[in-house]
Structure formats: C-alpha cells, structure tokens
Write a structure and sequence with these properties.
single chain, 373 residues, alpha/beta, Aspartate Aminotransferase, domain 2, 2 domains, 4-stranded mixed beta sheet, 13 helices, binds pyridoxal-5'-phosphate
Length: 373
C-alpha cells in the first residue's frame, strides 16, 4: 500500500459540500419552516423557473423523485399496456421499472462501447408498430449521441424521453440535455450532480401539452382541487427541497468544473496504468456524475480496493435484461454483448466536488497496486 496515511475517502462527500454553503442553505430552510407553506410553497415555482431557464426548456414540473419523473413523463405521453419503449439495458433500474409499472415493455438495444450509452445505430431496426417512445439515458453524466436518435424518432413520429438523472447540466453539441427530446426526466437524489437533501425530481419539456398533463398528474390528475380530469399520482416537489435546490443550482456550474478537473487529474495519474479511462465524446460536455474505468480484471481489483478501504462501486453489475424481475418482460432475449462486457469491466471511483489531489493520488496508487498483483 502507498506509504501515506489513508485520507478520508468517500464515493461522494455531501457533508463537506454542505458545510461550504451552510449559511445560504440554512437561511433557505428556515425561511420555508417559518412560512408554513410546506406543500407547493413559493420556492417550488421559483425553482421550476430557475431550472427551466438553466436548461433552456419552456416548461419544468417538479415532482417527488427521478423515478416519478419517468413515470409522470410516460403517463403524460399515454404509454401503457401493449406499448413498447426502446431503451438501454445498462442503467439504473428506474429507467425500466417505470416502463414495466405502466404495463409497457422495455425493448433493449445494445450500447456504444466507448460512451456506455444507447447505440443509435441499433434503434431503427428495433422499431415496431407498438413502439411508443425511445428512452436514452445520459449515463455517468455524458450525453447520448442525440442527433441520430432524434432523426430516427422524427422519421417514425415517436417521442423521445431523456433520462437526465445523472446529467443535469451535461451538454450535447453545446446544448444542455433534457430539452433535446420530447421530455426530460431529472433526479435530485442527494448524490446526483444537483442533489437535494432528500428525494426530488423534475420533468422538463418544450411541449405545452406534455407539460400541462404532467402538471396535473403530479397532483392526482387535477387542475382544480377535488376535480380529477385524468389519472394521477401524488408526486409533488417538496418545498423544503425546492428551497435547497434553488441555492445549490447557483453553484452547479462551479461544481461541474470541479468534477471535470478531478477527472483530468485521474486521467493524468492513470497514464500508462493499463486501464481504460472515461471517453469524452467530441459532441459532449461530460459532467462526470461518475468517473468510471474499464478494467479487464475488474473483480480482483475491486477486491483489493475493498481490502484497502478504498471506496469504489460497480454501476451496474447486472444489466437489466438479466435481472430476475425483468427477464420475462424484456425483449425476446437478444444478445447484447457490448452491455454484457461493460457490466463485467466497469469500475467507478470516488467522484465529487470536494476531492483533493492527495486523495486521488492515494486512490490511483491503490488501483495501480491491484493491477500489478
Ligand atoms: C438515480 C436515477 C434514477 C432515479 O432517480 P431517483 O431520484 O432516485 O428516483 C433514474 N435513472 C437513472 C439513470 C438514475 O441514475
């Protein structure tokens, strides 16, 4: 092991980040507590407006989580039993869970080996009469290759749902993701790039009809209280979380830069180590929600890191078409070799806004040591 005292290491360091902006956050929280407006208080509308302006979309509708954002978006698009949604098997479970929850079927296509995102070249062949949406995920904080996806969707008249859970502020050809497709679904889970201090989410769109429906769906399908026009759920954005997110949004660009800088440091420290460092596509501004390596001997390296108490994670060890809950409902089992290989090789290292170069040296030394064993 490297001969340094182990620095305090975590996958994400939310507390140090909070300490740095504590007065602003505490003031916002106390303002809400004193106001008594705990449900749909003024901060919710303020944050929706600020987020829409940041992303360049016409509408933003807050909701209770990123998972609910996907659910609400699909409900607003009328996706239901018998429908198919083309998506990636290499993502967090929520992307597929919500499709299946609505009685629709996820149709998985393989990913791009460099970006880990939906491979646009496979989409056209997967479209059937039942296809009701294409659902790319901007995984690890990097945009999927949207132009060919938009072209295919337009050709068939199918909406695009962007899963922006890991990519709030990531760019594709200079434009923020989320407003590139029909509807974008954001998560403010605490460890996401813009994280609340609890669960929160948002649907963003330029489509007035989708926005109007989403606005109703999050409050039991109603515009006027106790008059229910469509099927809805209870999924409001919490006022306290909105107040916190309003403060944190102002820091988001600086935090993207901190992550991008930490990624450059990792890349430099890994030179010649025999691992594949993250690929940043020419069209992308990667915001490094995760810093994810590809390592041939991944499980051995992970074991060594665990023994040395170096935090690390595997996003995701089992692709969704192999998950017990979804084996029955997914595509008739096609082979998805690029996804399978990625699932066996990816290894994510600590990545957050408070990483120091000393911590990164320690982490990289531990990975190099594991590789040399
Ligand atoms: C985190 C995440 C979600 C779900 O967000 P929650 O706010 O945790 O419900 C959906 N999709 C992806 C890709 C995610 O990473």
């Amino acid at each position: 092991m490297p001969k340094m005292n182990p620095p305090k290491l975590q996958m994400v360091d939310l507390v140090t980040q909070y300490q740095k902006i504590k007065p602003e956050i505490d003031e916002a929280v106390h303002r809400v507590l004193d106001s008594g407006q705990y449900i749909l208080g003024r901060e919710v509308g303020e944050f929706e407006a600020a987020a829409a302006s940041y992303l360049g979309t016409r509408y933003a509708v807050g909701c209770a989580s990123g998972t609910d954002a996907l659910l609400v978006a699909m409900m607003a698009l009328g996706i239901g039993p018998g429908d198919e949604v083309i998506t990636t098997p290499f993502t967090f479970v929520a992307t597929t869970e919500t499709i299946v929850f609505l009685g629709a079927k996820p149709l998985y296509v393989d990913i791009d080996p460099l970006t880990f995102n939906l491979n646009p070249g496979h989409i056209d062949a997967a479209i059937t009469r039942k296809t009701k949406a294409i659902l790319p995920v901007h995984l690890y904080g990097q945009s999927a290759d949207m132009d060919p996806i938009i072209e295919t969707a337009a050709k068939h008249g199918i909406p695009i749902i962007e899963d922006v859970a890991q990519a709030m502020g990531a760019e594709y050809k200079g434009k923020k993701v989320g407003g590139l497709g029909t509807v974008g679904c954001i998560s403010f889970f605490p460890s996401k790039n813009l994280g609340a201090f609890g669960d929160a989410g948002m649907v963003v769109t330029n489509d007035a009809e989708v926005a109007g429906k989403a606005r109703m769906i999050v409050v039991h399908g109603s515009k006027k209280r106790y008059y229910h026009e469509i099927l809805g759920v209870n999924s409001r954005l919490d006022t306290l979380q909105a107040a916190i997110l309003n403060v944190k949004l102002k820091h988001l660009e600086n935090w993207h830069e901190a992550r991008r800088s930490a990624a450059r440091t990792y890349n430099r420290l890994f030179e010649g180590a025999g691992v594949v460092t993250p690929y940043e596509a020419p069209y992308a501004r990667h915001i490094f929600h995760q810093y994810t390596l590809r390592v041939k001997s991944r499980d051995g390296v992970a074991q060594h890191l665990a023994a040395q108490k170096v935090p690390h994670a595997i996003y995701y060890p089992v692709p969704l078409h192999r998950q017990q809950a979804y084996v029955q409902v997914g595509s008739p089992q096609v082979s998805l070799p690029v996804t399978e290989q990625a699932a066996s090789e990816v290894l994510s290292l600590p990545m957050h806004t408070e990483l120091t170069e000393e911590q990164q040296q320690y982490i990289v030394a531990a990975v190099r040591e594991a590789l040399d064993r």
